[in-house]
Specification:
With about 220 residues, the protein is an all-alpha fold. Helix content is about 45%, strand content about 0%. The protein folds into 2 domains: about 55 residues, no CATH class; about 140 residues, no CATH class. The chain has a two-stranded antiparallel ribbon. α6 runs antiparallel to α10. The longest helix is centred in the middle third of the chain and has 21 residues. This is PiggyBac transposable element-derived protein 4.
Length: about 220
């Protein structure tokens, strides 16, 4: 069995010298390598033994790892950990953009008398947190349809959902959930078009925040 370092560079070495050698532009004999059999037996893989050859390919890892903040987390709750990554700016963004889109939609549509959208009122930050918390709970308790989480069928009844908010309110927020201002959208083919426009504000918020809070290890 080869050591991890040997296996880790096998693919690169095969690409660098294995394929080139077959085309006649180089020779495997020019490098300090030890093949575990011929190319037919190993599918073109070559094991590099000389560390000096590939050591320069590996960047020295000297980054800080673990929690990078200054707040003492010794007795922190799960919610406090979550708040390190999803800050007030995040919650304000999705709350404001959801309310904005709701008004844009309602002002541009002629609603039917029976439409539940007549019942819309602006969502608050605390209500948005409850809404997303229910989404997380749906990942723990899987059901076929959203309506099933509020159904009172006794074998699968989950009363917690109805205690947080009504089904109609949940579905109305879901209908208007937004992360960007539609009026700023640049159409495809125009300068400045962004395929990730719908989620770009969230990406711009959370990626720098994640990098500032936690440093991952070398081996992710």
């Amino acid at each position: 069995m080869q050591c991890p370092e040997e296996v880790g560079v096998a693919a690169v070495q095969w690409a660098v010298c294995g394929r080139a050698g077959r085309r006649g532009r180089g020779s495997r004999g020019d490098l300090d390598i030890n093949r575990a059999g011929n190319s037919d037996d190993n599918g073109g893989w070559v094991y590099l033994r000389n560390k000096e050859v590939y050591q320069d390919w590996i960047k020295h890892f000297d980054e800080l790892v673990g929690y990078l903040g200054e707040k003492d987390l010794t007795s922190a709750s799960p919610l406090e950990f979550l708040s390190l990554f999803l800050t007030d700016d995040f919650w304000n963004l999705i709350t404001n953009e959801t309310n904005r889109y709701a008004h844009q939609f309602l002002n541009s549509q002629q609603l039917k008398p029976s439409s539940r959208f007549h019942n819309w009122y602006d969502v608050s930050v605390s209500e948005m947190k409850a809404f997303l918390a229910l989404h997380l709970c749906m990942g723990l308790v899987e059901k076929a349809e959203i309506e099933d989480y509020w159904a009172e069928f006794w074998p699968t009844y989950t009363p917690g959902f109805g205690k947080v908010m009504s089904r109609n309110r949940f579905e109305i927020i879901l209908s208007f959930l937004h992360f960007a201002n539609n009026s700023e959208y640049v159409r495809r083919g125009q300068p400045g078009h962004d395929r990730l426009f719908k989620v770009r504000p969230v990406i711009d918020l959370i990626i720098p925040r994640f990098s500032a809070v936690y440093g991952p290890l070398k081996e992710l």
